[in-house]
Amino acid sequence: MRTMGLDAGTKTVGIAISDAFGWTAQGIETIKINEAAGEFGLDRIGELVREHEVSKFVVGFPKNMNNTVGPRGEAAKMFAGLLEETFSLPVVLWDERLTTMAAERVLIDADVSRKKRKKVIDKMAAMMILQGYLDSQK
């Protein structure tokens, strides 16, 4: 069984999947959503859950640098609850502070254009969130 990592924003959700051993994370796609309209891409997430035999979710939990939870953190908690309710699978909230910035840095260092970075940044952040969680389990 695999673990799915998610980096949820207001317009997209980056998706990553672990290997079968739970050692490595691979970014697989970015789903367009509309948080304001209550559209969270659950149909597509469900397809990926079935396709990859997912048994657990790890959702990026954006805390403030002083360890408090702001509006984006509350939105992540709500999204995690929605996943748990919809799929009846365990959900772990994982501190994602600075993962998007780290993903951006990696892509800049790899000389990826701004236009291409925008297309893959959320997927890469989801991969970094999931990899951090997987590494903590060893």
From TrEMBL:
Predominant location category: cytoplasm
Task: Kindly name one Pfam family recorded for this protein.
Answer: RuvX
The EC number on file is 3.1.-.-
A GO cellular component annotated for this chain's UniProt record is: cytosol
* GO MF annotations, alphabetized: helicase activity; hydrolase activity, acting on ester bonds; nuclease activity
Q: Which SMART domains match?
A: YqgFc (SM00732)
Q: Which InterPro entries does the entry link to?
A: RNaseH-like_sf (IPR012337), YqgF (IPR005227), YqgF/RNaseH-like_dom (IPR006641), YqgF/RNaseH-like_dom_sf (IPR037027)
Q: Which UniProt keywords apply?
A: ATP-binding, Cytoplasm, Helicase, Hydrolase, Nuclease, Nucleotide-binding, Ribosome biogenesis
SUPFAM superfamilies given for it? Ribonuclease H-like
The family database entries (Gene3D superfamilies) matched by this protein are listed as: YqgF/RNase H-like domain
Which HAMAP family does this chain map to? Nuclease_YqgF
Tell me the protein family, please: Belongs to the YqgF HJR family.
Q: What is this protein called?
A: Putative pre-16S rRNA nuclease
Q: Which organism is it from?
A: Domibacillus iocasae
